[in-house]
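Can you please make up a whole protein chain along with its C-alpha cells because I've never seen that pairing?
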Amino acid sequence: MKTIPILMPQMGQSAAEGNIVKWRKKVGDVIAADEIIVEVESDKIGFEVESPAAGKLVACLKAEGEIAAVGETIARIEVEAKAGAHVHAPAPKPHAGGTQEQVLVSAAESAELDRSELPDISKDWLSPYVGRMAMLNNVSLQEIRSIQGSGRQGRVTKNDLLAYIARRETAEPSPVATNGAAATAEPLPHNAETLGQVVPMTTIRRTIADHMVQSIHTSAHVTMVHAVDMTHIVALRERIKGTFEKKFGAKMTYSTVVLFVTSRVLRDFPSINANVYGSNLLFRNEINIGCAVALPDESLVVPVVHEADKKSFPKIAQNLDAIIKLARSRQLKREDVDGGTFTISNFGAFGSIIGTPIINQPQVAILGMGAVFKAPVVIDNQITIRDQLYLSFTFDHRVIDGAMGGRFLNAIQKATEALDEKDLDVAAL
C-alpha cells in the first residue's frame, strides 16, 4: 500500500491559506477517484477538493474550522502501490476548474529551461493556468514531461498536474504560502508598544503585500497617463441611467464604459493582452478583463469578465454588476477569478484623480481609472468646462515599449470620446 497526500489547493491569486469548511468523508471511508473529500474556502471563494485516486481515507490532518496554508497536506489517502503510480486525473469539471474554454499554447522544445519559466513542451499543450500552477509548485520541465495527460491529444490538464503534485514523494511548499510567512520576519522596534498600538497584519493583507512586492521585483513598471473627455458620456449616463437599470437590471457605470472600450481595443494589441512566464511571452486567445474590487475588510479581489470583447455593453454591465455583488458578499467561485488576461483598477471610486497601479502578475499591463471630474479645458483656443477622466496605464517595459503604450492609451481615449448610443446598444432608451 502507498499513502499519498491531499493538499490545500490554491484558491485565487491572493489567497495564501484556506479554511476547512466540511469533511465530506471520514477516516476509514473508501473513496473513488474524483470523489469529493472536503469542502474548503478562502476569504473569497469556496472549493471542493477531489480525490486524485481510488483508495481509503486514513488521515484528516485538519479539523473543520481550522486553517491550512496553500500546499499544506490536509489529508492522506491509502492506495494500492500499483495504483499510486498511475493516479487517475479526470477532465476538468466546472466546480474544479471553471467552465471557460482552456487557452492553450505550444512552444519549441528547450532542454535547459529554468524552473522559474513556463514549462515548454513540443509534444503536448499547456493552458496558462497549468503553467502558472507548475511554477507555484516548483514543478520542472522534466516532471511535466513525465505526466501522462488526460486532455485532448494527451494534453496535461489542471487535474493531471494536481494529481501529480499530490503523489510526489515530497511535496514542495508553494511560494505563495511561504512568502506570507517571510513578510512577518521583520522585527518590531524594541519600544514598539510605547510608540503605538501593535496590530499584526491579517493573512490576506500579508498576501496582497507579498503579491505587490513580487510584481514590482518582477516587472519593469512604467506608467503613462492620458486625459479622456467624458462630457458626452456623463450627459448620456445622466439621461438614461434610470431606464438602463430598469431594463437590464444593472447600473450604467463608468467602469463598464472603460471595460467595454478596453476589451475592443485589446484586439489590436496582442502584446498587451499577454502573460510572461520567464523568458516566454504568451499571447492569449481570449480577452478576459479582471476588475479590482475592494472589500469591506480592506482586502482585494479581482473577479473576471470572461470574453469581454464578445459581449455587448449591457451584457458587460450585467456581468460586472453580478461579480462585484458576489465579491462583496464573499460568494465568488474559482471560475469567477481565474483566467484574467488584463486588469482594470478603479481607484476613482474613492475620489482619487490619478494613480499608478501595480501589474497583476503574470499579466503585462494594468489600466487605472481616476474619478470623473469637471475641469477647465482649452478647445479651439477657448476655455470651457468639461468632464475629464485620467487613465493611468502601467505596463511591463520588458514587453511593451513607450510607443506601444502611448498608442494603446490613445486608442482607448479616441474610442471612448467617439462612443455613441448605437455603439453601446442603448439607442432605444
About this structure: Residues 84-124, 169-184 have pLDDT under 50 and may be disordered. The longest helix spans residues 231-248. Residues 95 and 403 are 42 Å apart (CA to CA). The radius of gyration is 24 Å.
